[in-house]
UniProtKB/TrEMBL annotation:
This is MarR family transcriptional regulator. Residues 7-139 form the HTH marR-type domain. InterPro entries: HTH_MarR-typ, MarR/SlyA-like, WH-like_DNA-bd_sf, WH_DNA-bd_sf. The lineage of its organism: Bacteria, Bacillati, Actinomycetota, Actinomycetes, Kitasatosporales. Coiled coil: none annotated. SMART domains: HTH_MARR.
Amino acid sequence: MTSMPASERLGSHLKLAEQALMATKAAVLKPAGVTVAQYSALLHLSENPGISAAALARLCGVTPPTINTILNNLQDRGLIERTPHEWHRNVLETRLTDPGREVMADADARAVRVERALAAEFTDGEREALVGLLGRCVEVLDKERRER
């Protein structure tokens, strides 16, 4: 197999774009007092009240131990509450508290500004094409991983 220069590797370009997005979100979320990972958890909790930590980890794209660390930090700050499920006592349901909803609203407004600024750089057709192309990337990579 022949080598391929980094400039020709799509993975390198995807990683650079992801790093730029995460660095920008980290900077804009800092005044809200949350990290990108904490914001992601708050966002998914706002859309899925009562979700389990395992399901939340999948939505956030992190491991169960990582989501537990994130949730412990958010709980220590009073931004979430975790209570035993009514029927499954070993499952904790997680919900935002009132202060958590306030922090989420502030953080989300900041993150949405980044997303809108990014989206504004593309025409509607370009955004649609980009979403489609990124979706194809995910499909190809998922298939490659499953075949290994």
